[in-house]
């Protein structure tokens, strides 16, 4: 396995400690492992990185060059990762949302101020419609709908429960009577949805 970054880090720790044994102690390795890793770098480069003596280690000219390049490379790598991390944390762009008129007004709109405060770089483009739209053709990212999901390859998540009620004014009940069964509604004046996606009989 190619682990040149790890080998560089070991090399820099040896330079810092000026000792294989001390570097090994700080890295929780054995001195023989540290020596083997330094030897692997030297074999790959075809140069000696350290001048070894009984008292201390000192860098060769090639070792000083490798040290400077390693420090710069690892700093650049850290910068790349920090930049990507900041970019992921600070999401931006436009998200296109489609939902029903009622849910958009009463469900989504109250949440927008807090969402924008948390994600100021995101633009929310909301389309309100009680028709079922083709998300692909309409370039919709997220759709909120009420009711059962038809057979689809789309990913859906249940976020709540909506209860339906049939209501009438007291004056209407006094004049035409109170329906006792769902079937009775066919004999009453019902004000319901006439959209293509609505349930039969406007219920």
UniProtKB/TrEMBL annotation:
Annotated HTH lysR-type domain residues: 1-60
Family listed: Belongs to the LysR transcriptional regulatory family.
Keywords per UniProt: DNA-binding, Transcription, Transcription regulation
Leader sequence segment: none
Pfam families: HTH_1, LysR_substrate
Listed transmembrane segments: none
Protein's name according to its UniProt entry: HTH lysR-type domain-containing protein
InterPro entries: LysR-type_TF_proteobact-type, LysR_HTH_N, LysR_subst-bd, WH-like_DNA-bd_sf, WH_DNA-bd_sf
Protein source organism: Bradyrhizobium diazoefficiens
């Amino acid at each position: 396995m190619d682990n040149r970054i790890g080998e560089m880090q070991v090399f820099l720790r040896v330079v810092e400690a000026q000792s294989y044994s001390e570097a090994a102690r700080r890295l929780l390795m054995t001195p023989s492992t540290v020596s083997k890793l330094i030897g692997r770098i030297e074999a790959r480069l075809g140069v000696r990185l350290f001048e070894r003596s009984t008292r201390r280690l000192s860098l060769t000219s090639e070792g000083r060059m490798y040290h400077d390049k390693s420090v710069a490379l690892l700093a650049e790598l850290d910068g790349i990762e920090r930049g990507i991390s900041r970019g992921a944390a600070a999401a931006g762009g436009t998200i296109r949302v489609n939902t029903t008129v009622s849910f958009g007004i009463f469900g989504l709109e109250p949440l927008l101020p807090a969402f924008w405060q948390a994600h100021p770089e995101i633009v929310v483009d909301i389309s309100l419609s009680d028709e079922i739209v083709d998300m692909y053709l309409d370039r919709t990212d997220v759709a909120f709908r009420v009711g059962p999901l038809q057979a689809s390859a789309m990913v859906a998540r249940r976020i709540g429960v909506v209860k339906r009620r049939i209501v009438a004014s007291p004056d209407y009940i006094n004049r035409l009577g109170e329906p006792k069964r769902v079937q009775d509604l066919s004999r009453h004046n019902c004000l319901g949805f006439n959209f293509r996606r609505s349930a039969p009989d406007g219920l």
